[in-house]
Design goal:
Layout (H helix, E strand, L loop, with lengths): L4 E2 L2 H19 L8 E5 L1 H7 L10 E4 L4 E5 L2 E2 H20 L2 H7 L4 H19 L3 H13 L3 H18 L6 H10 L2
Parallel strand pairs: 2-4
Antiparallel strand pairs: 1-5, 3-4
Length: 182
């Protein structure tokens, strides 16, 4: 496992830039300029999120400062899927009408946002050829009963229904249409 660990700043920066490139080209989206990557320890990230208890936070996105905080060590797939999740949040903050989402679906708004970010983790890892890891993530989200698991199942159902209807939109476009049509 240590051989697969990503820890060198240059290696993580390359992974970050490649992930952004893959997301923008593969899903026809864009990000706000100047998202600053901050590589920190899990403990520093946990404290910054003001999380109490033993929960582990691998990363977060701060829209006000446009900072993406990622744990500085970990298996390559875990670092990348955290980047995908948090970059999806960066896109959501920039592109979705979050006030409308909150107004129309106040109790479910977190499910939409976290579910979409989790869905993108699985979808992108599959498209990157990391099928076994994507299946693990899918299984994990299907087992969870928090906003990540419930949201994942909800968004997965919405996207699958759109695909059955014949939609050729990306999951990002489907998410935007879903929020706009609330």
């Amino acid at each position: 496992c240590k051989q697969q660990q990503v820890s060198m700043r240059e290696e993580i920066m390359d992974l970050y830039l490649n992930t952004i490139d893959f997301m923008t080209k593969g899903y026809h989206i864009s990000f706000k300029k100047n998202i600053h990557l901050r590589l920190k320890s899990a403990e520093t990230i946990r404290k910054r999120c003001q999380m109490s208890g033993g929960g582990r936070v691998l990363g977060f996105y701060n829209d006000k400062s446009r900072e993406l905080w990622i744990e500085s060590r970990g298996p390559r797939n875990a670092v990348q899927d955290t980047m995908i999740h948090e970059l999806t949040h960066a896109w959501q903050f920039a592109e979705l009408d979050l006030k409308k989402l909150q107004k129309k679906k106040a109790e479910e708004s977190l499910l939409y946002l976290e579910g979409h970010a989790c869905y993108m983790e699985v979808d992108i890892m599959r498209k990157l050829g990391e099928e076994e890891y994507a299946e693990f993530l899918d299984w994990q989200f299907n087992q969870r009963n928090d906003e990540y698991g419930q949201g994942y199942r909800m968004i997965k159902k919405i996207i699958e229904e759109k695909m059955v209807e014949g939609s050729h939109n990306t999951p990002f476009a489907i998410m935007m249409d879903t929020v706009n049509n609330l």
